[in-house]
Each structure stands twice: as structure tokens, then as C-alpha cells.
Protein: PadR family transcriptional regulator
Amino acid sequence: MKADALRGHLDPMILAVVEHEPLHGYAIMEALLERSGGELDLPTGTLYPALRRLERAGYLASEWSTVGGRKRRTYQLTSAGTKMLASGKQEWITFRAVVEGVLRPGQA
Structure:
């Protein structure tokens, strides 16, 4: 999938992945890959800056833990993140309907 296609949609996808349980960065990458049927194979240089941006914006909270002797930062959705995710889902529904209407007139 082209990186340009993700522009504007990556943040809600990340928030959706951590919606039900806190996850560390690598688990988020794996969940995105799995949920997308292998299409979203994000490099760490894309994911980790997005996680930091979402945390600075107050949509994610993180904490450090040690698992198997390794330190990991685990991210979870905040209440502001829950609202942002709901907004992102609605924006996606609208965007999808618009694109479908243009690309497949009469079939939307």
C-alpha cells in the first residue's frame, strides 16, 4: 500500500489497535499488519513518531514495563483518544462514501 494512501488515516488506525488493550510498539505494528491482511507493513520510522505524536496530543498514554528482562513502552487509549477514534471512524465512513460515489457511480 502506498504511504500517501495512509496520510490522514494512520492515527485512527493506531488508536483502533489499542482501543481494547494496551500494547507495546512492536505489538501495534504486528496488529496493523495482521488486521490489514499484510498490507500495512509499517517501518518503525513511521510508527514510533506517530505514537509519540499521539501521546503528546493526549490521545495515548504510555508507561514503561519490563518483560522478560526487556524494557517496553506500552500504549493505551485515553478518554481524549476514544473521542478522537470515534471522530476518525466517522471521517472514514464519510471519506469512503465520497470515494465510492466518484469511482463507482450508482453502486455506492
